[in-house]
Write a structure and sequence with these properties.
The chain is 51% helix and 15% strand. The protein is built from five helices and three strands; from the N terminus they run H-H-E-E-H-E-H-H.
């Protein structure tokens, strides 16, 4: 019988596995981040001439963003800085976090894409593209 002695410990093996899992997780979050930023860029860039909506306060446009949550904690929130409409950013982030708190059970990775102002649905219902066009692209 051959006697084999490993030149690594069980802790070395665990560390290697954990490093691989961490790298995989970071890459997954980066994919979410990239897709989320593309969603935001497309939605925010849509002008009235493109079928989007106009701006009075800029709050609706600045409320478009995303929040990524992992195990019940916010990993990242992104709401584009615009010339005006800083109220929209805060409302959008609060709304996204509320939605996540309702759907996330604290044991995985979740992402919410929002147009956070309460009248976003009304503007969409009037035939203006707030985020639905960008969301359709996001699904692909």
């Amino acid at each position: 019988m051959i006697n084999i002695t490993p030149d690594f410990s069980l802790q070395d093996l665990n560390d290697m596995i954990n490093d691989d899992v961490d790298q995989w997780f970071d890459e997954l979050v980066e994919e979410y981040r990239s897709a989320g930023k593309n969603f935001v860029e497309r939605a925010v860039a849509k002008t009235r001439e493109d079928g989007g909506f106009g701006n009075i306060t800029w709050n609706l446009r600045s409320s478009i963003g995303y929040v990524i949550m992992y195990e019940g904690k916010v990993v990242e929130a992104f709401f584009k800085d615009l010339v005006s409409g800083t109220e929209g950013q805060a409302v959008g982030e609060d709304y996204a976090e509320l939605i996540l708190s309702l759907i996330d059970e604290g044991d995985g990775l979740s992402m919410v894409l929002v147009a956070g102002m309460e009248y976003a649905f009304y503007v969409e219902a009037k035939g203006k593209d707030v985020s639905s066009g960008a969301y359709t692209y996001f699904e692909k």
